[in-house]
Design a protein that fits this description.
mainly alpha; about 40% helix; single chain; 1 helix
C-alpha cells in the first residue's frame, strides 16, 4: 500500500528545523 510515516512533533519546543528538513527531504525523494 506504499510507504507511510507518522510522527508527533511540537515545533514550539525548539527552533531547530532538522525535523522539518528531514520530512521535507523524505517527501521529495518519493516523487
Amino acid at each position: 500500500q506504499g510507504n507511510l510515516l507518522a510522527t508527533s512533533f511540537h515545533p514550539e519546543l525548539t527552533h531547530d528545523l532538522a525535523v522539518h528538513r528531514y520530512f521535507f527531504d523524505e517527501i521529495c525523494k518519493g516523487r
